Amino acid sequence: MSNSKFSFGKLISNILLVFKIDIYDLNFQISNEKIGYLYLPYIKTPRRKYLFRIDAFFRNMLFSFFYELSCCKKTFQNKVLSKKDILFFVVSFNQKESLKEICSNFNNAYFSGERLDVDIEFPLFFAHIASLPFIPILIIEFLKSVGYKRKTFYQVSEQYLLSYGYYIVANIWVYVLKPKLIVLSNDHIMKTRVITTVAQGFRIPVIYLQHATVTEKFPPLFFDYALLEGEDSLNKYKKNEAYNTKIYLIGMPKLDISYKYINENKKTNTVGICTNMLDSINDIEDLCVLLNKEIPTIHIIIRPHPGDTSRENAWRLLVENYSFSYSTVTIENSFDFLKKVDVIIAGNSSILLEATLLNVYPLMLKSNTEVKDVYGFVKNGLVECEMTNTTIIKKLKELQYLKPYVRHRACYYCSTIDTEYDGNSSQLASDYINSILSGDMEKYNYLLK
């Protein structure tokens, strides 16, 4: 990577493009009605209809200041400040988990992001400060907005405002670090989309890997390379224009460390219930009552969604009331949890796929919302059907004494099953990354451009 790409003049010209950024495209997850962020049951209607959620913006800024202040010593002492080639950028626990095994294969790589015990913290406080002069521009955008986009301003205007400062600081940050390659695992949230846009301004290759199962509602790929898990992801992205993204299939790298723990049990002793943010606690409790009554010998572990922090105490109380076990997502990753269970019950969640990959029998709990089979798990045969509490109990009584082998059901979602790279997807991904760094990707045939 030539240092001329990181000239000071290039930095200034990139920063000045902040006046041309599309805040709706950068905030695809919240601005696109197809995803329907505002329609999610756990998104609360604001009590006051004002444009700027000033309290949220400044509260986040203040929290960032004190958090980053506590990290300063670590950041300046960290040896990764000496230039390394590969930057793994993450902003959630699940994203970091999906890239951890790959990152560990490189001596010249480091993690960066926000509040995840990474090597270098992204300066989020300064991104808030840099956003403040753009309040007038955001007001203009609000006045021009209509329909669904207008509604989002009342809910997440602080995210739109932060986009400007995040873009400016990301340019300076990348200019200082000068990575040769950036790897990330989300394609629809503002922060990863900004990092990708900034990298393109410096002509730094960006590689995208999944951190979870994708849906047809995701945006078109706009990265240089995409390392996807299987045919399911490929076919979904094929439906959108791919903007010259070269796609390769690598399976699921985060499975590798748990590959040797594929479940061989012929009977069911332990069941995991994986809740999501759409699940009603009362509905899950109804299921727990039935489990205790109908199959009292089976051990139950409840694992709430990592984003469901506001209801953590309620879930813990439910576990205590029924003498179940509790899985804490910040302590135990999904595959470590899956090693402990023979069957899982979950709604529309990627953990159904992860379970199947470890031959843990997946049962999909019927949702009371309008969200139906968003990942195609029923359509593609990963699970039999959506089940009610009653049908789940009936099925569990069968599985209690005869649990069949179901790992083959996941072949459409994970390309490496029963191949030489089964359980070694991280190495395959690392081979691709090394070839991209060395400019030797011609030896591989990509699937879509």
**Which shape, going by the Cα principal axes?**
globular
Physical arrangement of strands within the biggest beta sheet: 3-2-1-4-5-6-7
Please give the alpha-carbon distance between the first and last residues: 23 Å
Helical content band: 40-55%
> Got a strand count?
13
- Average the pLDDT over all residues and give the rounded result: 89
**Most strands sheet:** 7 strands, parallel
| Amount of beta strand | 5-15%
Please, what is the oligomeric state?
single chain
Low-confidence stretches: none
The structural class is alpha/beta
Q: What is the succession of H and E elements? A: HHHHEHEEHHHEHEEHEEHEHEHEHEEHH
Please indicate the count of domains: 2
Radius of gyration over C-alpha positions, nearest whole angstrom: 23 Å
Distinct helical segment count: 16
Structural overview:
This protein has 449 residues and is α/β, with parallel strands linked by helices. It has two domains: 3-212, no CATH class; 257-410, Glycogen Phosphorylase B (Rossmann fold, 3-Layer(aba) Sandwich), CATH 3.40.50.2000. Helix content is 41%, strand content 11%. The chain contains 16 helices and 13 strands. The strands form two sheets. It has a seven-stranded parallel sheet, sandwiched between helices. Strands 10-9-8-11-12-13 form a six-stranded parallel sheet, with helices on both faces. Strand 8, helix 11 (281-294) and strand 9 form a beta-alpha-beta unit. The longest helix has 31 residues, at 147-177. The model has no long low-confidence stretch (mean pLDDT 89).
Map the helices and strands.
Blueprint: H1 8-16, H2 23-26, H3 28-31, H4 54-77, E1 86-90, H5 93-103, E2 109-113, E3 120-121, H6 124-131, H7 135-144, H8 147-177, E4 181-184, H9 190-201, E5 206-209, E6 225-228, H10 231-238, E7 246-249, E8 270-274, H11 281-294, E9 299-303, H12 312-322, E10 325-326, H13 334-338, E11 343-346, H14 351-357, E12 361-365, E13 386-387, H15 389-399, H16 425-438
Parallel strand pairs: 1-2, 1-4, 2-3, 4-5, 5-6, 6-7, 8-9, 8-11, 9-10, 11-12, 12-13
